[in-house]
Amino acid sequence: MPSKTLKTTTAAAVLALSLLASQPAQAANDTSDGASDIEAFTFGVIGDIPYGDAEIAKFPSRIQDINADSALKFVTHVGDIKNGSSVCSDQYFAGIRTQFDTFEHPLVFTPGDNEWVDCHRTNNGAYNPLERLDKLREVFFDQPGKTLGATMPVKTQENLGLPENVRFTQNRVAFSVVNVQGSNNSLLPWSGLGETVPTPEQLAEVEHRTDAVLDQIRETFSDAARRNDRAVVLMTQADMFDPSLLAAATANPETMSGFRQIVAAIVDETNRFDRPVYLINGDSHVFAENQPLAEGSPWLNVYGQPAADDLQRITVDGSANATNYVRFTVAGNSSDNNGVLSWEKVPFSQ
């Protein structure tokens, strides 16, 4: 006859197994890892790098500096893997992909305008930009749903033909990375190909991509609200609030028309969410931290939108200023929701 001790131990084991079995399975592509849900974590962001031969030569060292920051949960490159006056060749793309593969953290990459939108320029090789976008997707997004570098699962818009648009969650923070471009979101004419107005195929691509971006932004906020997430982080290549463009945009808001629907969606969703929203972008090359849609901002008139005081924008350094990466820290769950993210610039070693 089994001993009382054996009976008690067996019953406890059965109870433990039944409790384990009753726990809900973790949702696919939700990269929160359970054990770290109450802990702070960090991630890194770079953009507009490498620019020119000298920076290309330093790029492997830059990556190793980021790899040495072992606490990073992931890294995002917010676009522009070359400058705007160099050739958009297959060979160059392949070389950058080889470098990206040396990242030891998961790497999320969103294309920039320099590697496709502006490739019509003569000194870029006079390519059709849409052909270059197809090539970028072939080279950098050959495994949709997985990051570059170390593998981290992400939700993707591959079904819409945009595998570069991804989203994921970490510790009740929703991340959404979308393909929004400089050059007025790719509406400027392809002058290098002799065009003076946008072509029908160009307009069709902009419309399709913008619709997909709007869908992802709305889904990101909807899911974040349903999960009771603490914050939303959006990432784009384009600086939709570039201070160097403000005067021209104020005089003629049509110069920013390619961003109008996207900004409207961000305003609407930010105000409905009523919790911190962070927009991280590259494009304009100069580090900035501000609230571009706060009450009284001149950008409200440019875009014809009400204020969105909960939106905080961070622009990372790029081009000649790309001498650092930005390390973001996400506070633990017990922290005040008003300060979910903090950030600092970390200099590269050379």
Brief rundown of the structure:
This protein has 9 helices and 13 strands.
Q: Could you name the key traits of this structure?
A:
alpha/beta, 7-stranded mixed beta sheet, 350 residues, Purple Acid Phosphatase, chain A, domain 2, 9 helices, single chain
| Average of per-residue pLDDT values | 91
Tally of DSSP helical segments: 9
CATH topology: Purple Acid Phosphatase, chain A, domain 2
Taken as a percent bin, the fraction of beta residues is 15-25%
Structural class: alpha/beta
Low-confidence stretches: 1-37
- What's the shape? globular
Q: How many individual β-strands?
A: 13
CATH-level-4 superfamily name:
Metallo-dependent phosphatases
Percent helix: 25-40%
Distance between the termini: 73 Å
The sequence of SSEs as H and E is HEHEHEHEEEEHHEHHEEHEEE
Level-1 CATH class name: Alpha Beta
Strand order of the largest sheet: 5-6-7-8-9-11-10
- State Rg: 22 Å
Largest sheet: 7 strands, mixed
**Named CATH architecture:** 4-Layer Sandwich
Number of spatially distinct domains:
1
Describe this structure as you would to a colleague.
There is one protein chain. By secondary structure, the protein is an alpha/beta fold. The chain has a single domain (33-347), classed as Purple Acid Phosphatase, chain A, domain 2 (4-Layer Sandwich), CATH 3.60.21. 33% of the residues lie in helices and 19% in strands. It has helices at residues 4-22, 52-68, 90-100, 129-140, 182-186, 200-227, 246-251, 260-273, 299-303, and strands at 41-46, 72-77, 106-109, 148-149, 155-157, 162-170, 173-177, 231-236, 277-281, 288-290, 311-315, 324-330, 341-347. The chain has a seven-stranded mixed beta sheet with strand order 5-6-7-8-9-11-10, with helices on one face. Strands 4-3-2-1-12-13 form a six-stranded mixed beta sheet, with helices on one face. A hairpin with a 2-residue loop joins strand 6 (162-170) and strand 7. Helix 3 packs parallel to helix 4 (129-140) and helix 6 (200-227) runs parallel beside helix 8.
